[in-house]
Amino acid sequence: MTNSPTRNMIRIRLTIMAFSILGLVLASLNSAITRFAIVLRDRARLGITEPDNAILAHSFQQLMERVLGDVLIAALASALSAIAGLVLLVYSRRLRENSNLQIYFGFMQLILSLVILVTGAYLADHVHGCQSSFTVLQGDDRIPYHSIMYFGGVGEAVYGALVILIGAGYFGLSLAFGS
Fold first, then answer.
1. Extents of the domains making up the chain
2. pLDDT, tens digit (0-9, with 9 covering 90-100), for 11-48
């Protein structure tokens, strides 16, 4: 079976579509974590007035502000990557005319993966030790804020690492075998 240009273009478009969908999923996860960070930060602000939890509430408020900044960066990067992928899918003629766009999209995905790896690891690392604070400030909600934030950060870090490893492996194999 030979690789025709049409078959290669279909593979490229399917790959771009998969990364665009993953970018939208990551942007959705990060926007949910952003919302949770805002809710918990505001609850911590209300808890500062209580003398029993003032120190805990203040440190938790600062943690949620750092998490909020971290997750906003990841959400914006994921959304921009998904939008760029969708634009390439809609204007597929540009992909056929300019083969460098494929390479640029691949490098953009590697950079996004590095950002997602760093922000996910940062989120998981900083949220991991604060489970008791989450329990205190969670209130009567049934939403497991700590689990969503922690495992969301771990999942993002794993996703970023896998994409970087796959990209590096593909680059290494293409150098080794010259295809």
1. 5-177
2. 888 888 998 999 999 999 999 999 988 888 888 887 76
